[in-house]
Write a structure and sequence with these properties.
By secondary structure, the chain is of the alpha/beta class. It has a single domain (3-174), classed as Rossmann fold (3-Layer(aba) Sandwich). The protein is 30% helix and 31% strand. The chain is built from seven helices and seven strands. It has helices spanning 3-11, 23-29, 46-53, 65-74, 106-119, 135-138, 152-158; strands at 36-40, 57-62, 79-82, 94-100, 120-131, 164-177, 184-197. The radius of gyration is 16 Å and the shape is globular.
Length: 198
């Protein structure tokens, strides 16, 4: 999907994603001391807004103008940037880089992960949450293109030659709620990687 397609998707709905942060993001970061956070492919900004309200200085990047405008309206204190995560200039010395459901091909994923790593300060944390490769056949929702799905092992391989301190790298389950909000729609499988720059 390109920026125009995402603009159209965001413009077609009052809100595409939930207002609150992703549950895995919240669980991993709730007790972390605030600093400078970079949210790559931030979408409408649900995680960026949550971080800002917890005292983080947030730089949020997405290539959808519609999504970024929506985020900016919710939290003008965040530094919002319309840009491609493959090429947009990123802050340095970040305490956190967040990638939530950024589904890219293997080469693009490696590029973004390397850029994310370069943006981190020593001791800074990388948090990645994405649709796991197993979700295609076993889970509910998410992309149907196997080229943009991956595993925790894929992410660790992308970072293998870097000074990585891995805290968590695994597949997790997530219950998906039915569109009408009543009852479960099924189980989704996500990959979670939490690693610090050594």
């Amino acid at each position: 999907m390109d920026a125009e397609a995402w603009d159209a998707r965001y413009a077609a709905a009052q809100r595409v994603w939930s207002v609150g942060p992703n549950a895995l993001v919240e669980a991993e970061l709730a007790d972390r001391s605030p600093g400078l956070a970079v949210d790559l492919a931030c979408g409408e900004g649900r995680n960026a807004v949550w971080l800002a309200r917890r005292g983080w200085r947030v730089h949020a990047v997405d290539f959808s103008v519609v999504a970024v405008d929506r985020g900016r309206a919710a939290a003008p204190e965040v530094t919002w940037e319309v840009g491609d995560v493959l090429t947009a200039p990123l802050p340095t010395q970040a305490d956190l880089v967040l990638l939530a459901y950024l589904q890219l091909t293997a080469e693009e994923r490696r590029t973004v992960l390397r850029r994310a790593w370069e943006a981190l300060a020593v001791g800074g944390r990388l948090l990645l949450v994405a649709h796991d490769a197993s979700n295609l056949l076993e889970g509910t929702g998410g992309p149907r293109d196997p080229e943009v799905l991956y595993t925790a092992d894929d992410v660790l391989a992308d970072l293998a030659d870097l000074p990585v301190v891995v805290h968590r790298a695994e597949r997790v389950t997530r219950e998906v709620v039915a569109p009408d909000g009543h009852g479960p729609a099924g189980t989704a499988y996500d990959v979670v990687v939490v690693a610090d720059r050594g």
